[in-house]
Amino acid sequence: MVWLIIILFCLGNSSSQILDVTNNSHLDFDYRLFGLLQRLQVEKSYDTLLVYGEDCAIPSLFERLQVPAVLVSSGSTNFDWNFSSLTLILSCNFQDEREENYRTLMKLQTSRRLILLKGHIKPESVCDFYSKKEQHNVAMVKENFYQLEVVYSCRLFQDQNYEKLNLFDGKSIYKDQFRNMHGAPIRTLSDKEPPRTIPYIDSKTGEEKFKGYVGMLISQFVKKVNATMQIREDLIKDDEEVSFVDITNFTSNDILDIGICEARTLEMSNYDAISYPYLMSSYCFMAPLPDSLPFSDVYMAIVAPSILIMFLIIFCICSVLIIYIQERSYRSLTIRSVLMNDICLRGFLAQPFPFPRQYNRKLKLIFMLVCFSSLISTTMYTAYLQAFLWGPPIEPRLTSFDDVKKSRYTMAINIYEREFLEALNVSLEDVEIYDYGKFSKLRSTFNTNYLFPVTALQWFTINEEQKLFKYKIFYYCDAFCLNQFDILSIPLRRHLPYRDIFEEHMLLQKEFGLTKYWIDQSYRDMIRANLTTFKDFSPLLENDYIEVHNLYWVFTMYFVGMGMGLCFFILEILRPLRYWRNCKIKCEYCYAFLKNFAK
């Protein structure tokens, strides 16, 4: 009995020691893990801890950490992750993270991950697993972490895909690996649409390179991260011209990493395959400058109907007053005498007129008004005529799509801009639609019979080219546009692991003024790349001199006036109307006599 008691006592003592060792090991592990999480907070701050795992062995850490923790025991969230992007992901076991939410995967792709390995799982297999998912900020600790104090961190651009680190070495656990890609290829393709992208052949290397405010952005990024540009020309079939729509589709289907073009943003369900907005502008039309008024219409343009009516009323008033004051009776007032008053006709035409021998102050005052009116009218019309002949006025500019229908211009668009017009409920009856290449060639000819849609960025280059012309042809019509707020973004692959580095590079280039410099230099770069010439597209002016047919209205009014004057002169030298009445009676009498004689 005594031996039985001794044996039971020994067993109890040994079991308590084993429990103490186990508890102490858990406490040491929790303590070391807490220290590791604090160190990661110092290396790069995080404000949310996302924990994956059903049986997590470290719930006591959540209370000691000064950041909120979100526990996902099922391994996947059923909601769109809307927490801060400064998130640290902790997996209590390998493959406890089984995230299936697409939006959450996108937002947490570049977040740091800490994996707790149990059993005999090798670090290289873990790095391979996460590398296939394009999640590269991964570190691992084993169960004996509290004893060895070793952390395994995945590395991408080296032979061994992980690195063994000691906590006391002072090395950073997570490295921004895509800051130096060690010559890794970046798959890309360009639509070669100037001035965004200006292709040229490097004279030293013989390689195709790109300028322009989009081409230089991508080229400088490739140099910055020490990568190589792999142009996927194999995607171009039968030497067809590839458009920005095709490149955007390639990046959406994960065929390309970055597109050297403008991303298509119209009718997109989401914007996962494009970058942060690079530039913003308007998308309006370049319209030919309005035609000047022909010289043949100048003479009618200076004659305003309201002014003529006003002068006619003053003429009639002066004529009535002159006749009444001279005759002192209303009996002499007839339509003929008022409208054909010799004094008023000569006076209003600034010609000398006979002054009556007997006059009074009232008549003198009226004559002064007539002379003053003639001075005003002749001076005004002479000034208008000389000014309009020197510089004829131009027709009003276009202000709406309705004005385009009434004008002589035809709207030329490419096939991708048809959707804009349909969205604006604009009729396509008088619109000519071209494919992407033919439209660009037609716009480069500066054909003044067409209206061409351009962005404000493209218009800058076109306006620079017009400065070399004899005179300007087109202007940027922002009165009606396809899109008043056009956003230029870059096509990016959805799960691009260095998206944040590229967008940071993009914003820095713009902030330091390099983007503006590239835009200013775009026309010069096009000339160096032989994409444009110094040809003057301004047509010869047809109405810079006066021809005989331009004096049509002048000769018409002259001959009409001469004809009327001749008629009145003939009527004056002939006898009064009684003579014509007597002739009419005599003619009727002769006609009746001859008629009776014939019977």
UniProtKB/TrEMBL annotation:
Segments traversing the membrane: 298-325, 365-384, 551-574
Record keyword Signal present: yes
Main localization of the protein described in the UniProt heading: membrane
GO BP terms in the entry: detection of chemical stimulus; reproductive behavior
Keywords from the UniProt entry: Cell membrane, Glycoprotein, Membrane, Receptor, Signal, Transmembrane, Transmembrane helix
Localization per Swiss-Prot or TrEMBL: Cell membrane
Membrane topology, as annotated: Multi-pass membrane protein
Keyword Transmembrane helix: yes
Name of this protein: Ionotropic receptor 52c
Gene this protein is translated from: Ir52c
